């Protein structure tokens, strides 16, 4: 087991990882920018190292500074959290070259999944269902027309190097296609320095369903069920739940088995999430995230398994603590992402939190690094906390969520809490009846 883990992240996830390390009796080092000197995880860590000024590229993305902090403090492993360097293959390789363990998969697996065309090819080879489309990049207009006619309109053009929903264009007919191809390719070139694009069937009303997987790096793979993250705004998840209201037990077991087998065959090590669009009973792979996800607590709630403990165990060579047969899915869990944003326009609202009171009671978990008097720096993303609620079934979970939202107090800044108070009373949400476009439509229709 590791002696000392360096946490290369900030905010609620840095605190989340710190808690797991403390439970396992592992010493902790956190790195932080000058803007985060008074953050809660910095106060609670055994050691902290300031690695630079506020902009992420000079601190949380500065590989040299982070490796230097490992050397100075004698950390033997790094947990990257999510975002920042968590899916940076070069970072994983550099740490390995310094004999520091990256708590995550190999650089090669990160690289494969970071390239969307390569990821899709790999998924297909591993028996994971993918969206019908081109076999690789498409540059020639005639070829594009032939493929689109083959799979049928509408189609979506996506950037191979894509991320964050950028470089995507929908074409509803051959007339749109050439324009969409050019726009997507130009956008991809500008955003990612790589103009390769590919074509897929466009699904009109899918849900976003993702499967949590784990590999032990020694040929064993398990799945921990799915999460439904269909409630999104601009491709950003807002509300996540497990299980998905749309799946039955047989579908759940089938997609889970497909994913765990793929992970085993790949020889994958650590936590991963295989993301799908789901429509009319079919799953279509869109991407795999090779890291811990923001929404991992809903899986923890229904399985009782601490995913960060599991990541640390696997990375230290200790293997997984559970077998597939031992995993039991119990009850229902929902996570609301509480952002320091206007609840309607989603404009960031940094500033000082004058009063912060979190709900409690059975089935309530709040993961947050903020406190009364905390000043939210304007440099980073606006997630200030996550409310995770568990109940024996979805109805009980929703009742408890409504009560917890009423109890939550964040004064001094705007937050997305009022949006969740509206959503929890909405009949479609109560029925679990929503797709990936539902929230955007709701926001337009209910604008004051
Ligand atoms: P990114 O990595 O840029 O986030 P993804 O491939 O994960 O790109 O897709 C982001 C979102 O775009 C999906 O969650 C979905 O809303 C939409 N999308 C992607 N592919 C399709 C498709 N084939 N049909 C319909 N919507 C899609």
Structural description of this entry:
With 448 residues, the chain is α+β, with helices and mostly antiparallel strands. Helices cover 34% and strands 26% of the residues. It contains 15 helices and 20 strands. Strands 13-12-9-10-11-14-19-17 form an 8-stranded antiparallel sheet, with helices on both faces. Strand 9 (207-216) and strand 10 (221-233) form a beta hairpin. Helix 4 (89-97) packs antiparallel against helix 5 and helix 7 packs across helix 8 (174-192). The radius of gyration is 22 Å and the shape is globular. The mean pLDDT is 96. Adenosine-5'-diphosphate (ADP) is lined by residues 131, 156, 162-166, 168, 200-203, 206, 208, 235, 277, 286-287, 436. Residues 131, 156, 162-166, 168, 200-203, 206, 208, 235, 277, 286-287, 436 line the site of adenosine-5'-diphosphate.
How are the strands ordered across the major sheet?
13-12-9-10-11-14-19-17
Bound compounds, each kind once, are: adenosine-5'-diphosphate
Main sheet record: 8 strands, antiparallel
In round numbers, the mean pLDDT is 96
Specify the number of helices. 15
Shape: globular
User: Number of DSSP strands?
Assistant: 20
Strand and helix map with partners:
Elements lengths: L3 E4 L3 H13 L3 E7 L6 H5 L2 E6 L10 H11 L3 E3 L9 H9 L3 E2 L4 H8 L1 H10 L15 H11 L3 E5 L9 E3 L2 H19 L4 E5 L5 E10 L4 E13 L2 E7 L6 H18 L2 E11 L2 E8 L6 H8 L3 H9 L16 E8 L11 E2 L2 E3 L6 E4 L7 E2 L6 E9 L2 H14 L1 E3 L5 H7 L3 H4 L7 H8 L3
Helix pairs in contact: 4-5, 7-8
This protein binds adenosine-5'-diphosphate.
The site of adenosine-5'-diphosphate has 19 residues, from strand 8 and strand 13.
């Amino acid at each position: 087991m590791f002696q000392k883990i360096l946490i290369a992240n900030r905010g609620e996830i840095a605190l989340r990882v710190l808690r797991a390390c403390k439970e396992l009796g592992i010493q902790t080092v956190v790195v932080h920018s000058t803007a985060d000197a008074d953050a809660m995880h910095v106060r609670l860590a055994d050691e902290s190292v300031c690695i630079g000024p506020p902009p992420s590229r000079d601190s949380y993305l500065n590989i040299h500074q982070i490796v230097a902090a490992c050397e100075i403090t004698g950390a033997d492993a790094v947990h990257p959290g999510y975002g920042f360097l968590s899916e940076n293959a070069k970072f994983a390789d550099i740490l390995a070259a310094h004999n520091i363990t990256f708590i995550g998969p190999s650089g090669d697996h990160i690289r494969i999944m970071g390239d969307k065309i390569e990821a899709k090819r790999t998924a297909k080879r591993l028996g994971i269902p993918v969206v019908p489309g081109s076999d690789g990049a498409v540059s020639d207009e005639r070829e594009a027309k032939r493929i689109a006619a083959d799979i049928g309109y509408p189609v979506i053009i996506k950037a191979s190097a894509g991320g964050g929903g950028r470089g995507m264009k929908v074409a509803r007919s051959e007339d749109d296609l050439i324009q969409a191809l050019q726009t997507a390719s130009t956008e991809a070139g500008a955003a990612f320095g790589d103009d390769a694009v590919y074509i897929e069937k466009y699904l009109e009303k899918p849900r976003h369903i993702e499967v949590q997987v784990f590999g032990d790096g020694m040929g064993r793979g398990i799945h921990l069920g799915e999460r439904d993250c269909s409630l999104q705004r601009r491709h950003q998840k807002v509300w996540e739940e497990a299980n998905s209201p749309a799946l039955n037990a047989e579908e759940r077991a089938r997609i889970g088995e497909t994913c765990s087998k793929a992970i085993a065959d790949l020889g994958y090590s650590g936590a991963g999430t295989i993301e799908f669009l789901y429509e009319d009973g079919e799953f279509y792979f869109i991407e795999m995230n090779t890291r811990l996800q923001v929404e991992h607590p809903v899986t923890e709630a229904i399985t009782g398994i601490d995913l960060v403990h599991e990541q640390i165990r696997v990375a230290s060579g200790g293997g997984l603590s559970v077998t597939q047969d031992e995993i039991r899915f119990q009850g229902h869990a929902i996570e609301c992402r509480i952002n320091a944003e206007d609840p309607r326009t989603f404009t960031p609202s940094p500033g000082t939190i004058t009063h912060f009171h979190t709900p409690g009671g059975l089935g309530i978990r709040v993961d947050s690094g903020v406190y009364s008097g905390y000043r939210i720096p304007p440099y980073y993303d606006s997630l200030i906390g996550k409310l995770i609620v568990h109940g024996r079934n979805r109805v009980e979970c929703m009742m408890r969520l409504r009560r917890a939202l009423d109890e939550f107090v964040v004064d001094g800044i705007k937050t997305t809490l009022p949006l969740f108070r509206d959503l929890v009373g909405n009949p479609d949400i109560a029925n679990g009846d929503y797709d990936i476009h539902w929230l955007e439509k709701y926001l337009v229709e209910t604008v004051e």
